[in-house]
Write a structure and sequence with these properties.
Arc Repressor Mutant, subunit A, two-stranded antiparallel ribbon, two-stranded antiparallel sheet, 230 residues, 6 strands, homodimer
Chain lengths: 230, 230
């Protein structure tokens, strides 16, 4: 799924509530409508949208009632900071058809040896461990982003000291974010290629930047280790 | 910020584009309007909304032009899976006022010893390391979510074997997700307290669940290690 599409979907409060409900248990239209206090027509149109996006699916029970459930497993991550805005959507493939396969040897043995009730509680312990691990990872990511932003601040101070003029300032800032081409720099900085090129060459002579060629294009980037090798 | 508010904000394509632009560099209204091909009135109303939410702020230059920039540093994480829907917003406090402080001893020494240009390229190397680390963490989180969902699948199979009836099934499923109160169970399952209570007591006697008391409320949860201690 396109991450922009998911953000469009999640931008609506009622759709978020529907997803929340379905993540709890499969539901049918009038159930959702009752819970949310929203007419069934509106609910159906939200459900259609969610289904088209592949986010939900349904199964039909004996009373021909459509039960909707979440079809997908994904993680959306949005980072907003003074120096970056990134949206990443990780679709996590679920190989749920495996269910029918015989359990792994280890597991089979375990089931035979232990009471199934004990086995269930063991699964649950593992589940709680995973939750803790998930929280730890989230905290690590947070610390990383703090360090990233602080480092960016220091890089910008450093750039201001080094740059001869404001164009160099902007170029170094762009290259700090990622390697890039002349064309992209012209577009982003709204400056004529000749101006940018002259500054790139100067920076390159002073040992700050270098280029590599990929797919017949010049990609400029900051030099990797240092000036002293020049 | 309330994560729902951020999702509302990000649900609009033009607002996403504005954030994208400002994460690149501070911009003023007519610049944004030109880039997006959207009238200045609409841009101003989006900017007001973003500013009220604390996501952006502005500074005024000599020509009295308002330059808007991203004021915040945060990470939004949305997990959607058949068994869970969680939205987490991590506000990452930036202690940017520190800037004025003298640099740490190590850093001071480094600046003195090395050319400032070399120092800048070293900062950049560290920045690239952080980016790599960020990607690694994202991958770890992904593997974790796969394992989580597979484990949930197995727990559900296990529940179906263990439960005497469908109410028990639903109760064990709810408790798998988190510990909870009788009242919350009644609300979520839409069942009379007497039915739920009878089933909870039965499950508790069979050693599956137990309660603890917090803030004068009974919280039910799955037993931690196993049945064999009973």
């Amino acid at each position: 799924m396109d991450p922009a599409k998911l953000l469009d979907i999640l931008g609506n409060e009622n759709r978020r509530k529907i997803i929340q409900l379905l993540a709890n248990r499969p539901c049918y239209v009038s159930e959702i409508s009752g819970r949310l206090g929203v007419g069934p027509k509106a609910i159906i149109s939200h459900l259609n949208l969610l289904e088209q996006a592949g986010l939900i699916e349904y199964s039909v029970d004996e009373q021909r009632r459509k039960y909707f459930n979440i079809a997908n497993n994904m993680r959306l991550e949005v980072l907003v900071s003074p120096y970056s805005y990134t949206v990443a959507l990780h679709d996590i493939a679920l190989d749920r058809e495996k269910k029918g396969e015989p359990p792994a040897a280890e597991e089979k043995e375990a089931s035979a040896r232990e009471e199934s009730s004990f086995f269930f509680l063991k699964l649950n312990s593992r589940l709680q461990e995973l939750k803790t691990r998930q929280e730890e990872l989230a905290q690590m990511q947070q610390r990383l982003q703090v360090e990233y932003t602080e480092l960016m601040d220091r890089c910008l101070e450093s750039i201001e000291e080094l740059a001869k003029n404001s164009v160099e300032c902007e170029l170094l800032f762009e290259l700090l974010k990622s390697e890039t081409t002349l064309a992209a720099l012209c577009y982003n900085l709204r400056l004529h290629p000749s101006i940018i090129n002259a500054n790139l060459l100067d920076l390159s002579e002073r040992g700050f930047i270098e280029y590599s060629i990929k797919n017949n294009q010049h990609y400029w980037k900051l030099c990797e280790t240092g000036v002293e090798n020049k």
